Automatic annotation (TrEMBL):
Membrane topology type: Multi-pass membrane protein
Species this protein is from: Brevibacterium spongiae
Organism domain of life: Bacteria
Record keywords: Membrane, Transmembrane, Transmembrane helix
Signal peptide residues on this chain, from the entry's feature table: none
Record-annotated membrane-spanning stretches: 39-59, 71-92, 98-118, 130-153, 165-182, 212-233, 245-268, 275-296, 302-324, 336-357, 363-381
Pfam families: MFS_1
Boundaries of every Major facilitator superfamily (MFS) profile domain copy: 8-386
Protein's UniProt keywords contain Transmembrane: yes
Protein name (record): MFS transporter
Length: 391
C-alpha cells in the first residue's frame, strides 16, 4: 500500500478508535435508573461503577507504555478495540451486577490502553501534522462522549436499556475490524516510537519535573470533575425535580461543550506561548456552574450545564499539551502514560468521595465544597502546567 493510502487508513483508524473510548461510560449513567428497576443495584455498585473509569484509565496509563516494549502500537490498539467490543457487548446481556462490573473492567481497560496509545500514534505517523491530528483525535473522543447520553434514554425507550448499551458495543466491533485490517497491512510510521516505559530512569526523570507533576495534576483534577459530572449530573437534576430525559440531555450538553472547543483548542494551544489564560477562564466557569447547580438548580439548569461544560473543556487542551510538550515521538508515550496514569488515579477518587458525601449527609454543601476546592487547586497548578517548552 502506498504512503498516501496508508496515512488515510491510519486517520480512519484513529477516528474510530477515539470515538470508542467514551461511549461505554457516558452511555451508561442515564440508564442506571432503568437498569436498577430490572437488576437490584446497591449503593456500593453505584459508587464502584463511577470510580472504575478513571481508576482503570490510570492503571492503563502505567501499564500501556510497558507493553510498548513487547508489542507495537498497532497491536495494542487492535487489542484495545477487542476488549471494548467484548466487554460492552457481554455486559449488556448479563443479569449479574458483579459480572457487569467485571466486564466493565475489561472494556475500560481497553479504553484506557487506547487513551495512552493514540497520542504516540499521532506523533509517530503524523509528526508534521500534530496539531491537526490532535484536533481529530480529541474531537472524535469528545464526540464519542457527547452522543451516547443524548440518545441513551430515547434508544432505551425503543429497544430497552440492554439494546441501548449494545449499540456502543456495535461501534466497538467496527473498531475491531478496522484495526485488524491496519494490523495486517502494517503501514510504516513516519517516525519510530521506541519503547518508552514509565519506569526506571524515565519515571525518575518525570518525577523530578515540576511541570510534569503540574500537568498531571491539572489533567487529573479535570478528570476528577469530569467523572463526577458523568456519574452524578443526571441524578442531581432528577433530585431537583427534572425528568430522566431532560437530565440525559443535560449530560449530553455538558459533554458537547468540550466537543466543540476540542476542535479549536489544539491549534490554539500550538499558537499560544501559554494556555494558562484559557485554563483560568475554564476554572472560573466551572466554579460558577457548580455554585449554580448547588444553590439554584431549578433557576437556570441549562446555564449551569453550559458553564460546567466550558469548565471541563480543559481535558482536550490537556491531551493536546501532552503531545505538544513531549520532546519527541519516543517520549510521547512516556509522558502520556505518566500524566494520564497519575491523573486518572487522582480522578478515580472523585466519584467515590462525591458519592460518600452525598449519601452520608442530608445537606449537599460537603460534596460541593470538595469540587470547589478541587477547582481552586487546579487553578493554582495550571500556570506551571501550561508553560512553554519541552518536558
Amino acid at each position: 500500500m502506498n504512503s498516501a493510502r496508508a496515512r488515510i487508513l491510519i486517520v480512519v483508524g484513529i477516528v474510530i478508535a477515539a470515538f470508542n473510548l467514551r461511549p461505554g461510560v457516558t452511555g451508561l449513567s442515564p440508564l442506571l435508573d432503568a437498569m436498577g428497576a430490572e437488576i437490584p443495584l446497591s449503593a456500593a455498585f453505584l459508587a464502584i461503577i463511577g470510580m472504575l473509569p478513571p481508576l482503570l484509565y490510570g492503571l492503563s496509563g502505567f501499564l500501556t507504555p510497558r507493553l510498548y516494549s513487547r508489542f507495537s502500537g498497532l497491536s495494542l490498539t487492535t487489542a484495545a478495540m477487542v476488549m471494548v467490543a467484548v466487554g460492552l457487548g457481554v455486559r449488556a446481556v448479563t443479569d449479574s451486577p458483579a459480572l457487569f462490573l467485571g466486564l466493565s473492567v475489561l472494556a475500560l481497560l481497553g479504553m484506557g490502553i487506547g487513551n495512552v496509545v493514540l497520542p504516540p500514534l499521532v506523533k509517530s505517523y503524523f509528526p508534521d501534522r500534530v496539531a491537526l491530528m490532535s484536533t481529530v483525535h480529541v474531537g472524535l473522543l469528545q464526540f464519542g462522549t457527547f452522543i451516547p447520553p443524548l440518545v441513551a434514554v430515547p434508544l432505551a425507550t425503543g429497544v430497552g436499556w440492554r439494546g441501548s448499551l449494545l449499540v456502543w458495543a456495535g461501534f466497538g466491533v467496527v473498531g475491531v475490524v478496522c484495526w485488524i485490517i491496519i494490523r495486517l497491512i502494517r503501514p510504516a510510521p513516519s517516525a519510530e516510537v521506541a519503547a518508552a516505559v514509565v519506569g526506571g530512569s524515565e519515571l525518575a526523570r518525570l518525577m523530578r519535573s515540576k511541570r510534569a507533576w503540574a500537568l498531571m495534576t491539572m489533567t487529573g483534577l479535570t478528570s476528577f470533575n469530569n467523572f463526577i459530572l458523568f456519574t452524578w449530573l443526571p441524578s442531581l437534576l432528577t433530585r431537583a425535580g427534572f425528568d430522566a430525559a431532560f437530565a440525559g440531555a443535560m449530560l449530553a450538553l455538558v459533554t458537547a461543550i468540550p466537543l466543540v472547543l476540542g476542535f479549536v483548542l489544539p491549534a490554539l494551544a500550538q499558537k499560544m506561548t501559554s494556555a494558562y489564560a484559557i485554563v483560568a477562564g475554564f476554572c472560573i466557569s466551572l466554579a460558577v456552574g457548580y455554585i449554580g447547580l448547588w444553590l439554584l438548580p431549578t433557576a437556570a439548569p441549562v446555564l449551569w450545564t453550559v458553564l460546567l461544560g466550558i469548565g471541563i473543556s480543559t481535558f482536550p487542551l490537556a491531551l493536546t499539551l501532552i503531545t505538544l510538550r513531549a520532546r519527541d515521538a519516543e517520549s510521547a508515550a512516556s509522558l502520556s502514560g505518566f500524566v494520564q496514569g497519575g491523573g486518572y488515579l487522582l480522578a478515580c477518587t472523585g466519584p467515590l468521595i462525591f458519592a460518600f458525601l452525598v449519601q452520608s449527609f442530608d445537606a449537599m454543601w460537603p460534596a460541593f465544597a470538595v469540587v470547589l476546592v478541587s477547582v481552586a487547586v487546579k487553578f493554582l497548578v495550571s500556570h506551571a502546567a501550561c508553560r512553554p517548552g519541552a518536558i
